[in-house]
Amino acid sequence: MVPDVGKELGSNTYGLLAYLYGPGKREEHEDAHLVASWDGYAPDPGRDPAANLMQLSSVLMMRVNQLGARRPKKFVWHCPVRTAPGDRHLSDEEWAQVARRLVDVAGIAPEGDPDGCRWIAVRHADDHIHIMATTVRGDLKRPRLRGDAYRVQAECRKIEKEWGLRQLKEGDGTAAERPTSAELYKTERLGRPEPVRLQLRDKVRQAVAGAADEAEFFDRLVSAGLLVNRKLGPSGDVLGYSVADPDDRNAAGDPVLYSGSKLAPDLSLPRIRKRLGASPLVDHRGAERGGSAEGAKRTPGSRAAQARRAAAAAVDDATRTIEEGSEEEAAAQLVGAIEIIDVVAVRAPADTRAQLISAARAFERASRSHVRAERADNRAVRAAAREMLSSGYTGNRGEDGGVTAMLLSALILLAIASARWHSARSHAQQAAAASAAAEQLRAAYATVAARPMAAMAARGRSLPSSVRERQDAAIRAKLPDAGAGEHGGSDWDALAATLAEAEAAGYDPAALLEEARNRRELGTADSVTAVMVWRVRRIAKLSAAPSAKTETTGIRAKAAGPGAPAPAPGRQARNSRR
What we know:
52% of the residues lie in helices and 7% in strands. It is an alpha+beta fold. The protein folds into 3 domains: 2-168; 185-278, no CATH class; 284-578, no CATH class. The strands form 2 sheets. A 5-stranded antiparallel sheet has the order 1-3-5-4-2, sandwiched between helices. The protein has a 3-stranded antiparallel sheet with strand order 6-7-8. A hairpin with a 5-residue loop joins β6 and β7 (238-244). It is elongated and about 95 Å long. The model is unreliable at 284-300, 549-554 and 560-578 (pLDDT under 50).
């Protein structure tokens, strides 16, 4: 059950009644009539031929007009209430009960209070009603409405449970505003795929991702093709901003502007400034974030692939912080993680872009809560997002596809850890959003990882028997968490091939697995062996898509036994955060 208490009071009683009893913007209103009112005797223009809108408006306005010169400018309270998709249709009597309970908890008309405000509930569709009230009490005082939206939401959760309706997640005031009915109608009328508000929210969020400072943020907005309006103070300082799609105009032909705070709470200019100022970024071109320039040079692949490899390591560290750090540190990593996902979506090939945009939209809800993160450091993930953005696009083939799968694998585990973190703190909506993001990331991973994992699995199945036996023994010894279904499966084969390649490069497979396993727990992984493939390849700095010729030469030499050349010194698995 979804209530929508208006954030501001209105001033036109008759105008709202004309809408409620009218045909609607798309002729969607049917059989408009009262289901309840403050005293049960209000005139009903929908069912009583002798009643009209002016009469109903007059009785609702009586106490407001009694105030004379003290009449408030804003006094109309409005709250549509809708059942969730799939719920049964409530009867008029049930809707009347809903209305009475909501005006009670809102403070409009407390139960048993003879001086409560005048209100009505109008039904003109099967799935919802509109409650409206004039906010002057019988004693000519104003009702106490502070926090009314939260109380109404909480009462709806109780009604859902009591009546066996779909139980929705309880809000906490950190959600972004949904598109209005007018915006949805405009979208449908113009044949657009989705409301402009959602597209603007994506573009503004993507402009923040990895931005070094405020000037760069505004430059990115302009480069994205948006109209940007800066609100200036008397001193010339920028106090706020709003954006518009050049093709989105009102009836007068003016662009429809949305302020950052109207797009999402964390996109207001003060909140963006806090994010940019808390963790300033400095460019280190060519070096892995958190590593060294020398390490980056050893890492195979294009600059874009190197940036994604470094981002995967930053995401792993962020996941560990979410699981083990303080609340403030964890909240900061969630804010940084949305920047990584946003950039991945922007730079994704067409075959996964829609899934990754959906993942970003879901996770941006998970990145917001009442846990503040202003003083915590998330420079590593934000810098990784910046490096990916500046390093260009990647495809889903070869080395680029392999490191993208590596990054998506890390992001899935981060999303799962985020869902668990929110659930432990009763952040129901954020936990659900993080879980939804994980599902979208899984879908994108399945597309990207199919080719490199299949190639590695094929190599694993063709390993010399002595090499394969060693790798299987190491996996069984070091990965007791691997499920029974993984033994002998394609992910197991891919891990065996990865360990063989690392062994040929001079690493100890058992030590590598030990280090990779100790990075973080594996209980939330869909496939332990698949996760370990990417961790091992990153630790050993193996190519995400090695050439068959190079790999086969090294493995055969290693399989040759005691007479084979000794591995290069100093290449045993090393304990490091990377």
